[in-house]
Input
Amino acid sequence: MRDGDALKEALCERLSARPNIALTMSIAHEAIDDAPMLHALLQLVYTAEDPLRWRAAWALTKVAEQCPSLLVAQRDRLASLAIHTDVSQGLVRLLLVVLYSLPDAEEIDVALLNCLLDTMVCLQAPPSVQALAMKLAFRICSADDDLRGEFLCIVQSMELDLYSPGVRAAARQCLKKKDKKK
Output
């Protein structure tokens, strides 16, 4: 067995234990300090089955919070995974948290933006996913005046009474930020 495989297997074993914040933070700190560990964690996010995949993504959110620069090179792959509808909404939420933690991309990922815009208005999506999609879409659209205008039109045309309090709050925050930019 290669060292990478052994590391991935050991990580799988640790993530198979009952999830808790101390374990998640420990794995995240190790991934920040050790490139092979980060690689193994990313491979689990991309290839493992649930719930292992979900737990690896949770640890990845902690890496993104503390050291987002480590994940910038993975942005496109993480965005692609978030876009695919065959992944669980819990995993989508965690991936959106990671993407939201990363610095803004130089170019707009049109597929990701379209997915975010669709998700934020989808009443069947979990409210946490809708709100994150809205916040990330607003951040992406803020880089361009035309896109910002389109985004704000979408938010203003939403019948917010149909949405959860969290989604309504995210919409109000976006609209307040719009007013501050004038």
Residues 165-181 form the longest helix (17 residues). The chain has a mean pLDDT of 92.
